[in-house]
Amino acid sequence: MPDDSPRILLIDSYDSFTYNLASLCRRAIPNCIVHIVENDKISVDQLVDIIPYLSAIVISPGPGSPANDEDIGVVKHVWKLAEEHILPIFGVCLGLQSLAIEFGASLRRLNAVKHGQISHLDHTGQELFEGISNIEAVRYHSLHVVLEDCPDLQCLAWADDGEENGRVVMALKHISKPFWAVQYHPESVRSSSGLEVIHNFWRLAEDWTISRQRVTRPWTIEAENIVGIPWPGVSLIFPEPKSQQFITRPTVVTRVTECSRFPVVDVCEAIGAAEEDPDFVMLESAAQPGRFTIIGCLHDRSTRISYSVTDDKVALRTSDKTIWEPLGSDGIWTWLARFMSSHRANGGEPSIPFWGGLVGYLSYELGLQGLTPNLSLHDSQVERHSDVNLVFVDRSIVYDQLEGKVYVQSLLADDQDWLSSIVSTLQQKFDRSNTSSSLVPPLFENATVKLPDKETYIKQIQQAKEYLFAGDSYELCLTAPTQISIPKRTNEDKSSSSWDLYKILRDRNPAPHSAYIRLHPSTLVSSSPERFLSYSRTPGSVCQLRPIKGTVRKGPGISRAVAEEALIGSKKEVAENLMIVDLIRHDLHGVVGDDVEVKQFCGVEEYETVWQLVSVIEGKVAGEMSMRSDLDVGWEVLQHSSPPGSMTGAPKKRSVEILHSLENKDRGVYSGVFGYWCVSGGGDWSVTIRSCFKHDEEDKASSELPSREVWTLGAGGAITALSDAEAEWEEMIIKVESVLRAFTDNYRAL
Ligand SMILES: C=C(O[C@@H]1C=C(C(=O)O)C=C[C@H]1O)C(=O)O
Ligand SMILES: NC(=O)CC[C@H](N)C(=O)O
Known about the structure:
With 750 residues, the protein is of the alpha+beta class. Helices cover 28% and strands 29% of the residues.
């Protein structure tokens, strides 16, 4: 970087769009270097110390109000810096509101809040808008400013909200100081001319700098100590443990067989799925657009890895022993990265994504731990179930339904006998069609269902909306647990009720991300439609996220065209989806840097019981870094994007805090992710929705229902300012029913 590269300080108010703004600045301002610092991590004195090194400051959007010191932090002081410290500043949304109120404008709530909605702007064609004709502006705000008796400020753009809000200020400038700001989000993927607006800001900033003959100081280590290294940084590297670098990696040995029909259930039962005792894992593509089905062939030496967020150690368990390893200061994510780095393997079939590796789930609270470490969990008093529950799969079967091929694989040395015996078992299963075990079991008798309390849920929706009206969040994914109890099998009966449940679920609600994960004491049965994150193997890993937002129940008369009208034609549904797309772009940018692209915006996809609105976002690390095979980009993205944005809302941090206080219960396995991380470096994780889970101990502990097993089925939906409480309750129930149909047809709510 040349020494005269402009340095920009981006002050972040804990928004979920900040990295989108940082990336836009990097593209709009030639050679610029962006440092990002949170608004409560730098004092006014430190700000004054750093200013001589900076060319400009950019103020991010954010939750809350600029009138609230805790929400705005140091930002409120930047507008009132002494004359000799002044420098060009560009504010976005909360940033505009802060500028406005510091110079006398009043701050009001919008009558009709605008979250993820697109407005056409009227503007002066000057300053920020020079050379730009039409602007489509994405808005995420509940508050707005009114310029009365504030002669220092001049309005540059408006949105005409008609009867809803009248004319709303969309951009302004200070008449004598180099301060400009916009109320809308130029960094949103659906805003037009974002680059040009920032470019114009930069032109204005440079003009002002020249007219003042302001010069910036060359960067120093002291300056870096205040605001840290520039973004994107190099936090990505998990170096391989030294001792491993020279060790030859194991080679995956694979046997390939063709088969036109793969009897998943029979194959699983042949390797132990039907008995309750042994652990068992399977990730099944039970519906389009899924392609691969992955079956773990576990054995006595398979290593189980579990960890709870209230612990400082990780458990490694095989059938005969458990070892506890202290995590020290590294934390579980780095520990797992090291584990995988020392289990890398070569030589698998390039055309299949899984050669062996970790399979299992990560809870919602594991994601919270990184995002809001100080949040005290609701269930922290009781002994927590594992937040990380994984098994290292070194023998596996992968079925590629597109190519009609089955791959039997082993990472173990000298494992030919096992490979041969499994191949011959499979051959027998392929030859015999329609065995009795592939019949779908009958539904459970006497299933009792405890739905969430409707009144409470409706009240929570109203409370959520109050936060949305106040500007604390733009969208909140509210959820609630349903509990189902079914008769427990006797001790003599070794058959697995959860496997029966899975067989019914895959028949009644087949899904691209179906899964059966029995890692005692916890079992997860899933029919998830939603991929969270997949990453191709290193080097050159590409990360793909596929958020779903927008749901329509299938039924008579609901053709694709009708569903499209109800989804793409709905301002509310598109707004919900857009918000998550922008949030996910931010999450991805935060790890990979600039190279993030929306590949599909709001596509309508068909599932067994619902139509869904789905977007696809991809990102990768650019340049030389991308060629490093020790760079676990996908794992970093998973860590920094958990819990999935479609399960939280935006801005993520404030939204999860609000949800935590509203829901009054930990989500546990629900709302987290399940999937795999392959020994080749690739991975695929789905969102744990349309799923249910149980913990063995709870059956034992439950004195009221000693002979019953209890399943928890979480469900919810995104609450926005436009939400109708009854409709949201209905949507949550539709999602509950998609899984409930595996237990019972006629549930009687308790
Ligand atoms: C919260 C759930 O689903 C999430 C919310 C959706 C929505 O609001 O439309 C859609 C898919 C999921 O991201 C759930 O299934 O429980
Ligand atoms: N996106 C934003 O910065 C929003 C600002 C403020 N919290 C509002 O809702 O109006």
